[in-house]
Write a structure and sequence with these properties.
Blueprint: H1 3-27, H2 31-57, H3 68-81
Length: about 80
């Protein structure tokens, strides 16, 4: 396994962990449990961001810049789908 594959796997696992922790916070029934899930989520989200930044820096996770026309098209699409928004 090379470094890129390791980073991809790490990023995928961190994304999954963020998802689980976010749901744990949403479903928590006490302030203490909610706080624990929220803190763990924020820490994991920071790790995910670090891994993403390293991958982007190495050119392994390229991001496109959205053009104004693309943004307008998406806004229009979703405003038609939800007229109360």
């Amino acid at each position: 396994m090379n470094e890129k594959q390791i980073m991809e796997n790490l990023l995928l696992n961190l994304k999954g962990e963020c998802d689980l922790l976010m749901h744990g916070a949403v479903e928590s029934s006490t302030p203490n449990v909610h706080g624990a899930f929220t803190q763990a989520f924020n820490e994991t989200l920071a790790m995910q961001n670090e891994v993403y930044a390293k991958m982007a820096q190495k050119g392994w996770y390229p991001a496109e810049t959205a053009q104004p026309a693309q943004i307008s098209a998406v806004k229009q699409k979703y405003s038609q789908a939800n007229p109360n928004a």
